[in-house]
Hints:
Elements: H1 2-45, E1 49-54, H2 60-82, H3 87-96, H4 98-111, E2 118-127, E3 130-132, E4 135-137, E5 140-149, E6 157-162, H5 177-186, H6 189-195, H7 197-201, H8 204-217
Parallel strand pairs: 1-5
Antiparallel strand pairs: 1-6, 2-5, 3-4
Amino acid sequence: MNKIISWYKRERKVLLASVLCGVIITVAAGLYTKHYSYQTVESLSSQLVRFHVLPNSNSEADQALKNKVREEVLSEYHAVLSAMNSIEESREFLSSNLTSIEDFAQSVVLEEGFSYPVSVSLEHSMFPTKQYGDITLPAGNYEALRIEIGESDGANWWCVMFPPLCFVDVTRNEIDTETRESLMNLLSEDEFALLDDNIRENDPLVRVRFKIVEWWQDDGTQEDEIILVQGESFGF
């Protein structure tokens, strides 16, 4: 025991310095990874517009209504959004047509025999990690066209409206070549590598970067969703 005490007295400055260095390195690593995570999601969010539909409740009828509104809105606006070449065009179109989109969604609700009010907005929302074919977006705060039906208190649905990742080929579980190329043109090489499942599977460093983004963005408050049976839906 005396030898241990004697050794501690002799080496305590070295020990304290080592502990201090460890703490500094840990804090620095935490701050760096947090900054990287939020910077990455902010960059992705600035180049994507997601689509978020919130139903009145989890009842079978309300969930079916949610799916109907989703399908009709996608069908109505897919062509015009697919023809756009930039996020600025898409954002301008959506923000200028919120009232029209709201009226259209409301008409779908009424045609289905419901009287729920519908609210449409373009705002930022938290999204969980989500896969679209062989492209996976990490969790985070993204800009989205948000449609709220009634109490908007049920399991909700989301996809990417621009570029149009809502239209995934479920038979092959992949997005079409044109949409993939559009996404590649929008994003930097590093950003696209982070999202592409094929690249990430073969690059351990990219997998680590993706996990860092997920870890910092997952705050435990992400909203629930209903996973639709493959073949019944082409986007979720």
